[in-house]
Structures are given as C-alpha cells and as structure tokens.
Amino acid sequence: MQLDAAQLATGLLESAPDAIVGVSADGIIVLVNAQTERLFGYSRHELLGQPLELLVPESVRDMHPKHREEYAADPVPRPMGAGMELAGRRRDGSEFPAEISLSAIDTSDGVIISAAVRDVTERQRAERKFRGLLEAAPDAIVGVDETGVIVLVNAQTERLFGYPRSELLGLQLEILIPESARARHPKHREGYLGDPHPRPMGAGMELAGRRRDGSEFPAEISLSAIETETGLMVSAAIRDVTDQKNTQQQLREQNAELERLSKVKDSFLASMSHELRTPLNAIIGFTGTLLMGLPGPLNGEQERQLRTVEHSGRHLLAIINDILDLARIESGAVQIQLEEVDCIALVDSVASTIAPLAHDKGLELVIDIPAHPVMVKSDTRALGQILINLVGNAVKFTETGEVRVALRSTDDTTTISITDTGPGIAETELRSIFNAFERGSRINSTTKEGTGLGLYISHKLSELVGAQIAVSTAIGVGSTFTVELGSAD
C-alpha cells in the first residue's frame, strides 16, 4: 500500500496530544492543529494569519519578539525558556502554565518555527501537593541521584542538619555522614542501587548523621527509589532518634535498678523470714510443752495467757510464711516439679490440716470425693498450698453452716471446688481479691486476720502449674472457688 506523505503528516499533526503552532520568521501563525483549538479556545481561522503574541500573556508580550528572534538565529530543537515559568493565554483571557518545545522546519516558503505547547496545570498541581507533603514531613527527606549528588531536600533537612537548602543541593551526600563512616558509604549506596526496594538502612547497625557544625546524632534511615525523568533518585527519610535512645537508656537503667532493688528486697525478706521463724518455732514449741503440763500443772489464767501466746505465735508464723512464699514466687525461685498427683490423697491431707479449725468454729467440713482414683499432672506441694489457702479462707470467713470440698473428674479435666455458706463477696471486691495484700472483709463480716496474700499466692502458683482458679458468689448464700486442672495424660 502506497502511503500519502502529506496525508500522513496531516494525520499525525491533528492527532498530536500537544498543541502545535507553526509561525513564520516574522511571527505570524501559519499552522495550527486541533489540539491548539481545544487548548486556546480559538477556531483555526481565527488564529491563522495572526501574530503569535495573541497566545502569549500580556505581561510578557513586549519581550516575546526578542526571544523569537534569538531562537531564529540558532534554530535547534530545544525546550523554550529553561528555568522560566512559561504560560499561555486563552481566548477568554485566562492563562495556564505551559511547557513549550521549539523546533525549526525548512519549507519552500522559508523557515517555519514549530512550538509544541502542553498545559501542565495538573502536573504543577500534583507537584505542589507533593512539595507540600514533602515540606510538611516530620522526617528529613534527602534525594540523591545515582552518583550520590543531593538533588532534593525538604525544610526538615535544613532544620536537622543546619544547612540552608541552596548549600546542600549539588553536594555529595557524604557531607551529611560522620567522617568515620564516609569511606564505606559509597559501597553501601552502590549495594542499594543493585536492589533498590524500600527498606530500613543498615539493619542492626548504629547509624548517625552529621550536622553542619560537626556534631553528630543517632539516626533511623529509610530508603526508597523513585524513577524520575532524569534517572533513578534514591530518597532517604532521616529521623533523629536522640530522645528515643535517651529514653531507652533511661529505661534500661531504671529496669536494672528495679531488678537490683527487687533482689535486695527478696534477699531481705527471705533472710528476715528465716531469722524470725527460728525463734518463733521455739516459742510455739515451748508454749505447747507448757500447755501439755509437762513442767507442771497450770492454773486457769496461766493456761489462758499461754494459749494467747501460742495463737499469736502461730498467726505471726503464718504471716512470715506467706511473705517468704511471696518473695520466692516473685523472684522466680519456686521450683515446679510436675508429676502424677493423687488428688484424693491430697484432698484428704488438706482436710486433715483444716479440720481442727472448722471444728473450733462449729463448722461441718464435708469432703465429697469419687470412689475411683483421680490423678493429675501437677506439683504436689504447690497444689496442696493452693487448696490449704482456699479451704482455710472458706473456714475463716464462714461463721455457721459448712465448707464443702468436692472433687470431680472427666476424661479431660479435673476440678476441685470449695464451697462455703458464708456471707458472699461484694461485686466491688471480686475484681481485686487475687491482688497482693488485698484483705477483703466479705459482706456482713468483720475483717479477718491475715496478710491478704493467700489468694494472690494461690493465683500465682496456679499459673505456675497450669491450673485456673474461678470464683462464683451469691450474697447471703456463700462462695465457691474452683480449681480446674488437666488430666494426668
């Protein structure tokens, strides 16, 4: 097929995305395309034969003939007005920012200067939005070309590094890098260019920036690559993490001091508990000997006072034991040994320990256990202490009625529930009964003796052995504490 050159040229001209305006040497419009009509709002016949200055803003019309003459003297293809803000003027007098490329065409009628005019309103709007976001960024943003020359900075870069923008542009990026790391940096930059995807810089490394005055600061740096008209630009977002580093150091120092104080506290509590338990056990032992009448008979008043001494001694010993247990738990000194535990034997042992207390208060201690063996995987001592604390609490807070300890087992779980006929627990106290030193009074009950550590210790021990403690209560009816355990498998 034979192509008609004139038709082809006309078709290309009319389909061009830019407005094409051809002018003679004296500046008269001799050629326009359809995009020129759409962009400037003139019809073709209104433009042809008119001076080019018709499409130029009034503010620069007087200067335009001189620019046109300068181009005609050296008519090589090039962008018009490099570094200048160019604009076009529409038929209605409105103006728009423009990008204009010039070229010269030799014709039989002489040289025609062709101007390709593009409306860059949307591009400039996008650039302004980008520039606004760039300038508002909280991090310093530095863009460098593939050779490491700084081509872009934002306001935060000026503030962070102390350089004015005009001084940074065109310099090598290494000016912002501590001298101790400058020699290595080009290699790191080349490594990034080999795989330019967004990522933090120098993972695991201590990075730093260098200010204009030579001072340095710890930095976090994120890298990303942007394709531009002039090639690849690497963008670095730089954040001064001095405050963060200082805070982390302070936290480390505080944690170290807290750990030291915790160890001192634990050591003191353990030492004092042992020092106090020895004489207390002697007091309780000798008091028991006197009460049995082995050294000789006692009168009624002597016996009453000795029983007060014995009661107070045992109470103080219980407090010391609780404090010692607390110190051991919080210091991580509790050694848990998981083994098969015979729950029936353990419940019987706890019942034997608590039974005298229940008997003294006139309470019935009911033990409800199945006929078949019940084995669980737990720590015998820890589980026993949990049950003694819970059953002891139930007896302490129950004035009349009974305390029931029920053992139930299925294939998957074993539960031990302790139910009392006490006054119940107020809703406000339920939220805090497992806190340390919480001495709840229960409804309509006077505050009982104790450290408030029993439930806290039980809760902590249950976590160590993989058990769970739940509580349900009804005012005026009583409370039930349930220990849920896994099976022995």
Number of strands: 19
Unreliable residue stretches? 441-447
Mean pLDDT: 86
Superfamily at the CATH H level of the largest domain? Histidine kinase-like ATPase, C-terminal domain
Q: What does this entry look like structurally?
A:
With 489 residues, this protein is α+β, with helices and mostly antiparallel strands. The strands form four sheets. Strands 1, 2, 3, 4, 5 and 6 form a six-stranded antiparallel beta sheet that branches. Strands 7, 8, 9, 10, 11 and 12 form a six-stranded antiparallel beta sheet that branches. The protein has a five-stranded mixed beta sheet with strand order 14-16-17-19-18, covered by helices on one side. Helices cover 42% and strands 25% of the residues. It has four domains: 5-119, PAS domain (Beta-Lactamase); 124-240, Beta-Lactamase (2-Layer Sandwich); 247-330, Signal transduction histidine kinase, dimerisation/phosphotransfer (DHp) domain (Helix Hairpins, Orthogonal Bundle), CATH 1.10.287.130; 339-486, Histidine kinase-like ATPase, C-terminal domain (Heat Shock Protein 90). Helix 10 runs antiparallel to helix 11, helix 11 (300-330) packs across helix 15 and helix 13 packs antiparallel against helix 15.
